[in-house]
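Why show two proteins at once? Because comparison is the fastest way to build intuition. When a single record is shown, students tend to memorize it. When two are placed side by side, the eye starts asking what differs. So, the first record is below.
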Amino acid sequence: MSRVGKKPIQIPDKVKVGINDQLITAEGPLGKLEYTFRPEISVTIEDNSITVSPNVPTRAARAFHGLTRALIQNMIIGVTQGYEKKLEIFGTGYLAAIQGQILQIRVGFANEIHYQIPSGLDVKCTDQQHIVVKGIDKQKVTQFAAQIRAVRKAEPYLGKGIKYDGEVIRRKEGKAATKK
């Protein structure tokens, strides 16, 4: 059995959780999330906690056991606290701005990169070098932040590009370091 899957999930007072066939819903102060879990897994609510267990002793059921529990835990955290990813842009002339529902990124290409902000996410540019992505769905928040970062990852020589807040870029010495 999965070590992660065995742990019960505590339901906070502010959250309402409901199960209908294979659909679990969590509603809290920040919003409502739904997840359809696999038929190999059973989810039960008792004594203000959620337990996840496999129905059949197959390899697939064992694989989805811990995953289902982790996704439900992420839903509970999302509707109570929410998720946030911060990105930093470093480089001369590199900047980001928001115009309506479009994120504009200028990172040294001939044209600006435009991204439509997905529904359910709150994206802000605190200044031209910082982007903050917030939302209740962990997958949407991290996926959109990863898309932004993939435009131009921070490179190891000068550190120019987009990186997560707190991410450490291992710097390399250039050609001049070998000529001694």
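Second record. Ask yourself what differs from the first in the token line.
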Amino acid sequence: MERPTNVAIITFLMFAGGIVLTAAAVSLLIVGAIIATAGDGGEPMSVAITGMTVGAGFVSLVLAFIFACLGMAVPDFHDWARTASTSAIVADLEPGSRSILSSANRFWAATFPPRDKNHKLSLRP
């Protein structure tokens, strides 16, 4: 049976996301180890930063494992895998689209100010 193109694309995106998350996890764990072994390792701020980087590293590893499992299950046409992977991709794209729309709104407000001379130009953050 021939696989549909969208299944191949979703599988590729899941494995690519898993690779990116694994690289992020490794880099976070390395940064945590560097901060922990630095000269000021006992300072409260360095302990907090070490804890955050190690925690984020392990969370990234868990997410990478989930992405890899979804990437292996999608080509077998498991319905739960397709639903979960598609919702993960859509949830990942949503903040980026909000950022793009917000930037376009700021550009539009700065480029085309209102015609009313009494109205001051205000850029929304």
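One difference worth noting in the second protein: The two ends are 52 Å apart (CA to CA).
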